[in-house]
Amino acid sequence: MMSSDYKRLTGVSRTTFGTMLSEIESKAAQAKFGRPPKLSCGDQVLMTLMYWREYRTQFHIAQSYGVSEATVSRTVRKIEDILMKSGKFTLPGKKALQSSDLAIEVILVDATEQPIERPKKAASALQRQKEAPYSKGTTHDQRQDQTHSRHCLRAGQHA
After folding, report:
1. Contacts of 63 by beta carbon, 8 Å cutoff, 6+ apart
2. What stretches of the chain show up as alpha helix (H) in DSSP?
3. The predicted structure's pLDDT at residue 19
4. Calpha distance 22→39 (Å, rounded)
5. pLDDT in tens, 16-56
6. Angle between helices 69-86 and 14-30 (to 10 degrees)
7. Maximal CA-CA distance, the chain
8. How many other β-carbons are positioned within 10 Å of the β-carbon of residue 42?
9. Half-sphere exposure of 115 toward its Cβ, with a 13 Å CA cutoff?
10. 152 vs 135: CA distance, rounded Å
11. The domain 3-90: what is its CATH number?
12. Residue 57 · residue 68 · CB < 8 Å
């Protein structure tokens, strides 16, 4: 694998990975107690880089390496602690990140789903009933005439 492809895959160069690996192996040699880890030091560093680089969930990383989520969590935390305590690997401070000549404009779009109020079908049926109250004394023919004249008025016609 070419050096540029390796950096694209892991986020670090081969020399940085080698430095990380030697630091982890030296700490692992000092702490020879408990159950031996299922993954080699190189796999542990790669797993941590995968977690940082790809933002994959611990569940998916665990499935890839054949370990539990708890093992992934412990391993990532352990590797992070060892690398940070070594003093060889640090991130630039906030001021170094802020002092840029580039003008960056950020536009946020709120794409949250919002419920839309829509009239209920039952409400429209109730509204139609309220529009035409009939008196008890009207006959069937009178009701039809009232309904016909209402429809004609809505349509703009004369009865």
Report:
1. none
2. 3-10, 14-30, 41-54, 58-65, 69-86, 94-98, 121-131, 140-155
3. 92
4. 16
5. 999 999 999 988 877 777 788 889 999 999 999 989 888 88
6. 100
7. 102
8. 14
9. 3
10. 21
11. 1.10.472
12. no
Please give the Cα distance from 126 to 131 (Å, whole number).
9
The residue type at 122: A
Rounded to 10 degrees, what is the CA torsion of 148, 152, 154, 157? -170
- The amino acid occupying position 147 is T
Q: Which residue has the tokens 């690997």?
A: 89
| Angle between helices 3-10 and 14-30 in degrees, nearest 10 | 60
Question: Tokens 């430095």 label which residue?
Answer: 19
**DSSP tag of 39:** S
Virtual torsion, Cα 50, 55, 61, 62, nearest 10 deg = 130
Q: What is the pLDDT of residues 111-129, one digit of tens each?
A: 766 677 776 666 666 666 6
Amino acid at 110: D
CA distance 50 to 52: 5
Cut 0.70: pTM above it: no
